[in-house]
Design brief:
Blueprint lengths: L11 H12 L7 H8 L3 E12 L6 E7 L15 E2 L1 E4 L11 H12 L3 E2 L4 E10 L3 E10 L1 E2 L6 E4 L9 H17 L1
Parallel strand pairs: 1-7
Antiparallel strand pairs: 1-2, 1-4, 2-3, 2-9, 5-8, 6-7
Length: 183
């Protein structure tokens, strides 16, 4: 959804307000609704960098998976590009005092049949201003997994693959690399 919208009129504001009240109690949202709203607010993102040391030489590797195609998800801003695993922290995730519900969703949707070895560890916070999607407060977590996910694979941390989502290439994975190298 990249078309330019006209400014809201005085008649539009009460309609929008009523719809947002309804939206607050409806999650998850449709992808196209989320993408439109994401450009209006700062979005809390749970970014999970899954890492390991390569079995042959001990080199650092990151687990990456392809984003959906436009056919699978028409509102996808980065079709078929590689990215680490992540999810938006939803209002409904706040039933707990930590992001365990979001991590459980990642395990079910993106890691299955693999699982986290231990709860992902918060490594850094970074602001990402993505012109295609909006502004994100990325809570970058480090994790290891047991088992093999159905989709995706491990890639060398250096050099990173070319077909990466820009925020993962420029901010998320380099931040994780720096934290891991300092351990």
């Amino acid at each position: 959804m990249t078309e330019q919208a006209l400014p809201l009129t005085d008649d539009d504001w009460p309609i929008l307000t009523n719809l947002l009240v309804k939206l607050a109690n409806t999650q998850p949202w449709r992808p196209e609704t989320y993408e439109a709203l994401a450009r209006c607010v700062v979005n809390p993102a749970i970014e999970t960098v899954i890492w390991r040391r390569g079995p042959a030489h001990g080199e650092l590797q990151f687990f990456l998976a392809h984003r959906p195609t436009k056919e699978e998800q028409p509102s996808e801003p980065f079709p078929e590009m590689l990215a680490g695993l992540g999810t938006i922290f939803r209002k409904t995730d706040a039933r707990e005092t930590d992001p365990r519900i979001a991590f459980a969703r990642l395990e079910e949707r993106e890691l299955k049949p693999a699982r986290f070895k231990y709860p992902p560890e918060l490594a850094a916070l970074r602001l990402v201003n993505d012109p295609a999607r909006g502004v994100f407060l990325c809570c970058i977590h480090l994790a290891e997994i047991k088992g093999t996910p159905a989709k995706g694979k491990f890639y060398p941390a250096q050099p990173l693959p070319d077909n990466l989502v820009p925020s993962h290439r420029d901010i998320i994975l380099p931040t994780a690399f720096k934290v891991l190298e300092e351990k």
